[in-house]
Amino acid sequence: MTSRKRKKKPLIDRIKRQIALEGPLGISEYMALCLGDPEAGYYTNGKPFGRDGDFITAPEISQMFGEMIGVWCVLMWRNMGKPSKFNLVELGPGRGTLMADLLRAAKVDEGFCKAVHVKLVEISKPLRKKQATALKNFDGNLRWLDDIQGVSAQPAIFIGNEFLDALPLRQYKKSGKHWLEQVVGVADEKLCFFNGQGCFDPKDLPENYDEEPDGSVFEMSPAREAIVQYISEHIGGFSGAALLIDYGHTERGFGDTFQAVSKHKFVNPLKSPGKADLTSHVDFSAFTKYFDERVNYRLTTQAEFLSSLGLVERAGALGHGKSSEERYDIEMAVERLAGRNAMGELFKVLVAASKEFRLIGG
User: Fold this and answer.
1) Given this model, what pLDDT does residue 8 score?
2) In what order do the strands lie in the sheet with 265-267?
3) What secondary structure letter does DSSP report for 49?
4) Is 285 exposed, middle or buried (0-12, 13-18, 19+ CB in 10 A)?
5) What mean pLDDT do residues 185-191 have?
């Protein structure tokens, strides 16, 4: 007689059970469970991307986005002295759309295509399958990694589009003279936010923090900072470049940006764990301390970055000979990617490279 595999309880019930046994969860721990739980995590089992998913990322809007990044990669590789072997590392590759468009655009340089070793940092098995399908025509060196630490010690170009925003964050709320960590607990059988016991040292807050009213929120993400620190140390030690794109800000400040998105709408982040994407705005200013005398960096907007690489010119070439309806769609894609009232200003770009290489983009 065969034994049946016991079905796990819903994620929300397991979270409540953990809180009952161990106490409230920090937002960072809560995010890690919701997004990465092996059985019910949003990214490990969901279908988040595209019009039929919960949100649309820039690569899904238009092929032009990935093509511009492909141009940037080729230019950086040439700028690096055309190493005969290098890693092209994408963090959180989604459905593989960006990398497919990138590599197609990079075919303009045969040397680049021969030298590149593509590494996709992805923990989700369903998404790995989608990435493999998207990259089925790529006949070069391709490998998946569970963690960025698996990148070999050689020149590398790192790409991360809307990757950092999904990494866990911590929140601290002002209560009197103290900044108390926000935690997730249970009240009336529902998940709720509470003030925890952990305090944040005010000396690490932005200036004039004492003028903030009670209830003000400060966010930080050690997980994001650890990724950027690793990338900086890698390209500083083995040469290379990095391109990190996300929605966020370039000056430190206060505000609650923790949010959940499901079916293209904002929802309560505590209502359905594992069923919605959890993110927050990325504080790019927190990363600058990890760049030293070995690494140059630049912060710019997505609009400036894409425009500097020829987005408008590429749109014109793509629309040549097309119908008026098709040209209109291309124009609308440019507006969504680079418009002031769309992604162009909200999304920021961090460009970094070894000190001896010129920065490109923006």
Assistant:
1) 74
2) 265-267, 259-262, 277-279
3) B
4) middle
5) 95
CA angle 233, 238, 241 (to 5 degrees): 70
**Model's pTM, two decimal places?**
0.92
CATH fourth-level superfamily of 44-168+223-249+282-354 = Vaccinia Virus protein VP39 (3.40.50.150)
Confidence of residue 1 (pLDDT cuts 50, 70, 90): very low
Q: What distance in Å separates the CA atoms of residue 221 and residue 224, rounded to the nearest whole number? A: 5
Instruction: Give Cα 152 distance to the centre of its chain.
Output: 21
d(CA 19, CA 36): 18
pLDDT in tens, 45-67: 756 655 555 568 999 999 999 99
Cα dihedral value 334, 338, 343, 345, nearest 10? -170
Alpha-carbon Rg for the chain in angstroms: 21
The string of pLDDT tens digits covering residues 147-181 is 999 999 999 999 999 999 999 999 999 998 889 99
Q: Rounded to 5 degrees, what are φ and ψ at 341? A: -95, 10
DSSP three-state, residue 246: strand
Give SS3 for 93: coil
Tell me which residue of 195, 346, 184, 338 sits closest to 281, measured CA to CA.
346
| Cα(58)–Cα(305) distance, integer angstroms | 13
Separation CA 297–CA 281 (nearest Å)? 20
Both tokens of 281, joined, read: 């705005």
Q: Which of 191, 3, 164, 155 shows the shortest CA–CA distance to 183?
A: 191
Q: pLDDT digits over 212-262, tens only?
A: 999 999 999 999 999 999 999 999 999 999 999 999 999 999 999 999 998
Contacts of 311 (CB under 8 A, 6+ apart): 64, 68, 334, 337, 338
CA of 7: how far to CAs of 16, 35, 39, 124, 274, in Å?
17, 19, 10, 20, 16
